Amino acid sequence: MCGLLGYLLSDNSSGKMASSEVLSNMLSTITHRGPDGSGGWCDELVGLAHARLAIVDLSDAGHQPMPSACDRYMIAFNGEIYNHRKLRRKLEQQGQAPEWRGHSDTETLLACFAVWGVEKTLKATVGMFAIALWDKRKKVLTLARDRFGGKPLYWGWNNGA
């Protein structure tokens, strides 16, 4: 089972910046969840990390956190999208598919978010999942999980500490 984690600093975090060292320390606590690789990414406000158990795309093209082809989004994803091939075909038929780097359902999700937006993509998605999606342009973090809660997603708030 994969694992994902991250943190978001508020705009008023008094000069604090996301730290790859903090993210790395956090990631070390969940590496047992993903024997097929792990990675982290951060910018000035957010840090995302992922421990990977490869299921759909066993190649390095499925490495996470993963950026969207348009570079607007960054995702850490745990789960499986059962209809991801159908979603890919729909994007291709609409002439809106990116040049695919691999065969992962994570890449499919990112392409759908870029074309259809978050809400429409989540409504079209069938599977079990937990997602942390960072919109670099709007500076919005979206956390989502499947309708039945097949994959856990926990979050907390720390008042500026």
What's the helix-strand series? Answer: EHEEEEHHHEE
- End-to-end C-alpha gap: 30 Å
> What would CATH call the architecture?
4-Layer Sandwich
Q: Which class do the helix and strand fractions yield?
A: alpha+beta
Which overall shape is indicated by the principal axes computed on the Cα atoms? globular
CATH topology: Glutamine Phosphoribosylpyrophosphate, subunit 1, domain 1
How would you classify the quaternary structure? single chain
- Report the CATH C-level class: Alpha Beta
What are the low-pLDDT stretches, counting only 5+ consecutive residues below 50?
A: none
Q: Estimate what percentage of residues fall within beta strands.
A: 25-35%
Query: In total, how many domains does the architecture comprise?
Result: 1
CATH homologous superfamily grouping: Aminohydrolase, N-terminal nucleophile (Ntn) domain
Major beta-sheet overview = 4 strands, antiparallel
On the 0-100 scale, what is the average pLDDT?
83
The percent range for helix content is 10-25%
C-alpha Rg (nearest Å): 15 Å
